[in-house]
Amino acid sequence: MAEKMKDSTIVGGATVIATGATAATTASAVVGGSAATIMSATAGTTGAALAATAGTAGTAGGAAIASGMATIGSAVGGGMAAGAVITAAAPVAIVGGIAYGLCRWLRD
Q: For a designed S-S bond to 59, which of 26, 39, 64, 65 qualifies (C-beta 3.0 to 4.6 A apart)?
């Protein structure tokens, strides 16, 4: 008799797929693009808000977002485009991680 798959396994797998899809979609929109293209593609997203918090002190608005994306991207050897991909995928991964943890705690 086959065992039932754990709910946390399903949630974890869905999280990996959703995070990868978000990263791929963002990458296709920003890789090789200018700063203006990257800003346009990420305007108003949770990732842009996340990047703004990592921006250079004393900057605001677009400058904070751009410097934040560049700072985050430099952590993996990239630039602003890499930072845009990371900041777009991070909220999906965080929410999925929380759902996975809750599922493990409450259901498994």
A: 64
Task: Read off the DSSP letter of residue 108.
Answer: -
Q: Which residues of 62-81 are buried (b: 16+ CB within 10 A; e: fewer)?
A: eebbbbbbbbbbeeeebbbb
Q: Are 96 and 14 in contact (CB under 8 A)?
A: yes
**Spacing of C-alpha 73 from chain mean position:** 12
* Residue 38 CB-half CA count within 13 A: 29
Whether the CB-CB separation of 100 and 12 falls below 8 Å is answered with yes
* AA letter at 8: S
Separation of alpha carbons 71 and 73, rounded Å: 5
pLDDT 10s digits, 48-100: 888 888 887 777 788 888 888 999 999 999 999 999 999 999 999 999 999 99
Are residues 30 and 103 in contact, defined by beta-carbon separation less than 8 angstroms?
no
